[in-house]
Amino acid sequence: MNSSFVAKDKNFNREIPLPKGALSVEVEYKAKSSYPIIPSPSIEGTIGKQIIAPTYSQEQHETWKKMLKRQQELVQAHLCQEYILGTQALKFPAERIPTLAQSSIELEKCTHWQIIRAEGLVSPINFFALLANKVFPCTDFIRHMDEIDYTPAPDTFHDQIGHLPMITNPRFAEFFHLFGIAGANAKTEEELSWFNRIYWFTVEFGLINPTAHHGKERKPQLTRIYGAGIASSCGEIVYSLSSKVKKIPFDIDVIIETDFDIHHMQDQLFEISSFDELENKFREWAKKKGFLQ
């Protein structure tokens, strides 16, 4: 990793250094990851088209193929239009696991973001710096076949199918960029927990409904998914829009006080009314808390 890699944002006139050291942190997954039969020769921290793909088994490609087919059957009726357009722009192959290099090339065409190769979860200080630099970390291993409906491990299906389509959208990408800049200014464990919860209930498990704040006039049939944790889990896609899940109007002050558990399907989620609301409300909150100028 190039330790001189920094964010230079014209709106904030500041630099955010990318810290030295490994990207990933030690974590015990309650999941069965399926690693490539020959690892990528690219070191962790390799960016964009420089990333060399690992060698996967045919079974691993079949896992991708099966998950993608099942997910695509649900996309039109359950995912937001911004996500759908994003998948079209990224041109994911149906028969094999896409390379991080090619996905990064397509992503960069849309919003000037790139992919960086990661081997697992990324520490908060590194993660914020990456987002502030318009770089998103992706793994290159895939979940085990018997966990295709839901896995807490951030495998390449989750990272690519879940996250990348939304980052092709300029409004969501700008929110994500602001999130990184603001998060880099978090100083305490409590502040980090706020960002963790905002991330969970927007980027990972966010819903969108133009009538989200209409009270009794809300129209539940208009709810669509944009969160990566839902989009990359066929079981979660169906469950999240069911009456079993409580839908709460988007409110950051409520979100930062709301706990969650990553190891089961979510029983309450937050709805934004638009991506304008997501960006503007986050910007207002971050400025109020002193995370943005």
**Average predicted local confidence, pLDDT:** 89
Structural class assignment: alpha/beta
Q: What is the CA-atom radius of gyration, in angstroms?
A: 18 Å
Shape: globular
Q: Could you say how many structural domains there are in total?
A: 1
Strand/helix succession = EEEHHHEHEEHHHEEHHEHEH
CATH topology: Phenylalanine Hydroxylase
Contiguous uncertain segments of 5+ residues: 1-15, 24-31
CATH superfamily label: Aromatic amino acid hydroxylase
Number of strands: 10
CATH architecture: Orthogonal Bundle
Count of discrete alpha- or pi-helical segments spanning 4 or more residues: 11
**Can you summarize the main beta sheet?**
4 strands, mixed
Helix coverage percent:
40-55%
Structural write-up:
By secondary structure, the protein is of the alpha/beta class. It has a single domain, classed as Phenylalanine Hydroxylase (Orthogonal Bundle), CATH 1.10.800.10. Helices cover 42% and strands 11% of the residues. It has a four-stranded mixed sheet with strand order 8-7-10-9. A hairpin with a 4-residue loop joins strand 1 (6-9) and strand 2. Helix 2 packs across helix 5 (156-167). The two termini are 28 Å apart.
